[in-house]
From TrEMBL:
Localization per Swiss-Prot or TrEMBL: Cell inner membrane
GO cellular component, one term: plasma membrane
Molecular-function GO terms, alphabetical: transmembrane transporter activity
Name of the molecule in the record: TRAP transporter large permease protein
Record function comment: Part of the tripartite ATP-independent periplasmic (TRAP) transport system.
Entries under InterPro entries matching the protein: DctM, TRAP_DctM
Family membership noted in the UniProt record: Belongs to the TRAP transporter large permease family.
Domain TRAP C4-dicarboxylate transport system permease DctM subunit: 20-432
A UniProt-annotated Pfam family: DctM
Length: 442
């Protein structure tokens, strides 16, 4: 019914439907997403004749000709260096010392270290792989079933795109013309809320099934243990400290903060003698592979966005949806449903570049703050990282453990539910996203 209304409003023809069919078919055939988007965009422009194909090359270049995008490979590289220098294990030691007094302590430490890693790398898949290799076997030894241990890491790693600095917020900021620094500031409370919800959910599940006990210790023993961990690994927190202070104080742009973090992390690796020149080729290639997946998608999103805008799809979508209902709460719920469904079948970057320009006018129409919309969108898409059939984090932890994806997904259900609750809170309580922002953005 909704799509029929859209079709009548915009008068869509084969110049729209054929590219969409091609896109779906190419995705089903496992063609890289950037290629599928590119074929769909060029076909749409060719069939509509509204924009000369000679301008596609210029549009591709303009799509990635942004200083803010330089931060993406820098944060990816910082996360890779962090793992290779062993600094990520220092995070785990401190997180374990913080939570060792409580029942389910190591499970809580796993969630916390996911958040710490997210505050540096900005990537969920990298966090799932790095933290999973460090913690899953120890979680099993502590009494957790392996599928649940994998689900816990996969859920915790979702904070990679939710806690700033996040690659996803850089991309949506570029697509919608919003400062990445502003989005980072707005995402701080929602990102921590997601982390806290996963932490609490694990504690509840652990109490119900009694997976992991907790060592009894006095306050003095806990404080002494924490002091020893901080003494041996305090320097690992220099990197996230630089990133957070630099960005949130306004002294550094996200790109400058990423560059500084890379230099400092590499210098620490040489000082600690955990990094050598021989590590650089593999490290750079690994980071380049991740970056090589993201940037072509962003580049080809530009001609696609132009094609959709020329055909009036975003405006038609808004007109059609609002003709069915004008209740803001219902329209917000509709957007959340679309985003979670999209997150289940496609990665975050293509979802952002395709859906953000279409849903943003609808959010504007109901008076939703544009910053709040961005935070809601990224958080809703983040649920898809632990939801089949795509569930990128599920595939990552399954790949490093050999555990069945379906078993992991079944154990991840409580985390999906708790994240959904936070998404609803973000969508209906603007203050969660705007409290830290200057008045001009509220």
């Amino acid at each position: 019914m909704l799509w029929n209304t859209v079709n009548q409003t915009v008068e869509l023809g084969w110049d729209f439907y054929l590219p969409v069919i091609l896109f779906v078919a190419l995705i089903a055939l496992a063609v890289p997403v950037w290629a599928a988007i590119g074929v769909a965009a060029i076909t749409m422009l060719f069939m509509s004749g509204d924009l000369p194909l000679s301008l596609v090359g210029e549009s591709l270049f303009a799509g990635i000709d942004a200083f803010a995008l330089t931060a993406v490979p820098l944060f990816i590289l910082t996360g890779d260096v962090l793992v290779r220098t062993g600094l990520s294990r220092k995070f785990l030691d401190v997180a374990e010392a913080l939570t060792c007094f409580a029942k389910g302590g190591f499970g809580s430490a796993t969630v916390l270290v996911c958040g710490m890693f997210a505050a540096i790398s900005g990537s969920d898949a990298a966090g799932a792989a790095a933290v999973g290799r460090m913690t899953i076997d120890r979680l099993v030894e502590s009494g957790y079933p392996r599928p649940y241990a994998c689900a816990l890491v996969a859920a915790g790693a979702c904070t990679g795109i939710l806690i700033p600095p996040s690659i996803a917020y850089i991309i949506i900021g570029l697509v919608l013309g919003i400062s990445a620094s502003t989005l980072f500031l707005a995402a701080l409370i929602p990102g921590l809320a997601i982390l806290l919800s996963i932490l609490i959910t694990n504690l509840i599940v652990n109490r119900i099934y009694n997976y992991e006990g907790g060592g009894m210790m006095t306050a003095g023993e806990w404080f002494a243990n924490l002091g020893r961990s901080l003494k041996s690994g305090w320097y690992a927190f220099i990197v996230p400290g630089i990133i957070f202070y630099g960005i949130f104080s306004g002294r550094l742009t996200p790109t400058e903060a990423g560059a500084t973090a890379v230099v400092v992390t590499i210098a620490m690796g040489f000082i600690l003698r955990t990094l050598s020149l021989a590590d650089f080729p593999a490290m750079l290639v690994s980071s380049a592979k991740v970056n090589g997946v993201i940037l072509p998608i962003i580049a080809f999103s530009a001609p696609l966005a132009e094609a959709l805008a020329i055909m009036g799809v975003p405006q038609g979508f808004v007109t059609s949806v609002t003709s069915l209902t004008d209740e803001p709460w219902l329209l917000i719920l509709l957007m959340i449903g679309i985003l979670i469904a999209a997150g289940c079948v496609m990665e975050t970057t293509p979802n952002i570049v395709i859906l953000a320009p279409i849903l943003k006018p609808l959010a504007d129409n109901i008076g939703m703050n544009e910053i709040q919309f961005c935070i809601m969108m990224i958080t809703a898409l983040g649920v898809g990282f632990i939801t089949p059939p795509l569930g990128l984090n599920l595939f990552v932890v399954s790949g490093i453990t050999g555990e069945s994806i379906l078993k992991i997904a079944a154990r991840a259900v409580p985390f999906v539910l708790c994240m959904f609750v936070v998404v609803l809170l973000i969508a209906y309580v603007p203050a969660i996203s705007t409290t830290l922002l200057p008045d001009i953005y509220k």
